[in-house]
Protein 1
Amino acid sequence: MENFAPPRGMRDFYPEDYRIREYIFNAWEYAAKIYGFEFWDAPVVESMELLERKAGEEISEQIYSFEDKSKRRLALRAELTPSLARMIINRQGGLSFPLKWASIGQCFRYERMTRGRKREHYQFNLDIIGEESTTAETEVIAATLTSLEKTGLSEKEIRVHIGSRKLLVELLSEFKLSEAQLTACYMALDKKGKVSDEEINKILKNENIPEEVINKLFRVISISSLEEAESYLPENSEALKELKEFFKFSESYGISKYLKFDISIVRGLGYYTGIVFEGKAVKSNLRTVFGGGRYNNLLSSLGGRELPCVGMGFGDVVIMELLSDCRKLPGQRHGIEYIIGYMNADCAEFAQKAAAKIRKSGKSCSVGLKPEKPKQFFKKADRNNAHNAIYIGPDELESGKITIKNMKKSEDTIKSFAELP
Ligand code: HAM
């Protein structure tokens, strides 16, 4: 073997990378738990039948699929939502809705590699299943923002752009577009900012969207405020009512400062039906940090009962870059509480017993795997950011007195074996 790098787009986590990943996972778990979401998980491998959709989405072309030895068509999941839908449908008779579910799962997409997009990522998901009210959108976004705040980010760094597919449908209602045509419009609009307007125009023409619709579409997505949208909508507009309600709930949740109405947000997945949102970095030119929305038809389209759902996905790649750009990545390793070294083989047993006692008390402790000279040992203790260092030599063995060196304060405390934690 000549090349020791992982396959292109796949990721190794060396301890320093793993530490950052753990830091992000902890923030996600913290937020999910304090908002009362319950964690779930599913296999990374799913049946291709569950994952394939016809909507012309980018994600469908990015699936890693394969046949197993029994010729089953399988795939690595590209997102968690189909697995969630499968699990809900499987038990839909026995579950009490609404459910608030959270997950952190590894996803694979054969993606064109750019900054913030890899072929493997971990994705945090929050979903509320079985709730019509826009309290669900508010709750999902608020919990997501809490996880970002846990990493030290604030409204100075993150903006949540709020759009609505329903609003777009209402604004285009005069054209009587089919579901397929509407989906084609969403998929093309999702590319806005990533490709030129001419390119989007071309995509829409290829999808047989009439010229007048394309023109209106471009006019509509240049609407800059909810008030402006209101002037084009009938009084009984359901989309407007939902958005206003959502913005009102967001005030009481204390998250309004993060939100911005942005009609051009439509998202690139076929299943969204209502309010959609994307969390973006305010300053840096990064890819979307998290995204989601309401998807009221996915479960029924897979053969389950009709259940209104809202959810979001938040990957670990962009947030790592954002934290790095904002200099908010966690500092050096947290450090071990105790580190123990010893001079020779005779001292090993005493050192190992001391380590076993300390670990039983729940404190972390690393004991040398072979004898070391004191100088080497204290250098290592420093490198490992150990809080306390104990070195066992013949004197300690004979007297039973152990010197615990507090590495930060450079202070020594002498204790007997029984007095160790
Ligand atoms: P998505 O927009 O495809 O939505 O992905 C959500 C997030 O996952 C993105 O904003 C990004 O943070 C991360 N992500 C996606 N692809 C990659 C990649 N190739 N490399 C790194 N990060 C990536 C969904 O997946 C929906 N299933 C979310 C959802 C849950 N909607 C409802 N419930």
Protein 2
Amino acid sequence: MDIHEHQAKSILAEFGVPVPKGHLAFSPEQAAHAARMLGGGRVVVKAQIHSGGRGAAGGVKLCTSETEVRSYAATLLGKTLVTKQTGAGGKLIERLWIEEATDIAQEIYLGFVLDRKSERIMIVASGHGGMEIEDLAEKDPGSLVRMIIDPAAGLVEFQARDLAFRLGLKGKQIGQFVTTLRACYRAYRDLDAMMVEINPLAVTGAGDLVALDAKMSFDTNALYRRPQVAALRDPGQEDPRESSAHDNGLAYVGLEGDIGCIINGAGLAMATMDMIHLAGGAPANFLDIGGGASPERVVTAFRTVLTDPNVGVILVNIFAGINRCDWIARGVVQAYQEVGLTLPVIVRLSGTNVEEGREIIRTSGLPLMSADTLAEAAKLAVRSRPSPIAAQ
Ligand code: GDP
Ligand code: MN
């Protein structure tokens, strides 16, 4: 789960990261008021959306007067901002963060991520942070400093100091960097984060460190024990298809294609996506219906898949171990009747009670297509699309 920049800054500040003063604004008037409360000097107006790359997309602006703040806030609020990270749909700007401007001498990149290879938290840092960090990571990956943290020892001071030296920091910056690094690590660990990123961590004209941007992402599986974090969720920033699935407890990821998928098991779902691509199509979603799916759950899965207007055909692929093919089949029939389906549906069943399941499909009197193998199901789905979109 992602949170907004201002929320991440407030969390990190509590752990000891230096951040500039700022205020939240939901209207141009509030933005102007915030600028006044910051002393009337230069401020930065920042669009709060769950995405990076806002600067390059016009979502971050340095303003020198209250009038400028007000007019820029009016331009941003209610607008959809498309960045390199949002996809073509963009994200709606509903709130702004108004922050005192900082005079920047150097931009440092600092990231904490989960390194799956070592199964540990890894720090990634660069002395050349800011908006071009992705280009740098691509062109010269060797220039990024990486450091793995031993969970038993935690982030130890000499490691933090070593990193400060490798980034070329000097004097009082070293102590400030150690404090910042340890604060990020504690926030990451104590709050079950998946990612903490400060870009840029600025060296100011006066030589101090301050976090000008902050991003945090959390492990959704741990939210049950982090109610303060769960409360920061902003459904307005989520893919509406995913919010509805999330509310129904389904594992769903929205994709760009037109073949809606209802599958049990994440592995089978991945294999099905591959098969669809191989057959020349594109999946509209990843959906793992899970084990022991009741007919009601199948109906919910259909409703979720149908929240995506791009879906032109539905592929149900079940390899029943814990699941039962007859339950799934009954769910499909029920969904057809309850949801008022008009789209072609392909059903491939295998495993527990497969004969009963196929019998229900066969005798339903509904225009359901049965397939015996995964490859056959994928081909049928691709062929049954009402208006095929170009394969990507
Ligand atoms: P992002 O593009 O979504 O990562 O948004 P950032 O918060 O990182 O802002 C983009 C860029 O704006 C930063 O890389 C900085 O170069 C610049 N920026 C942000 N805050 C300030 C500030 O207070 N003063 C100045 N001069 N530049 C800023
Ligand atoms: Mn940034």
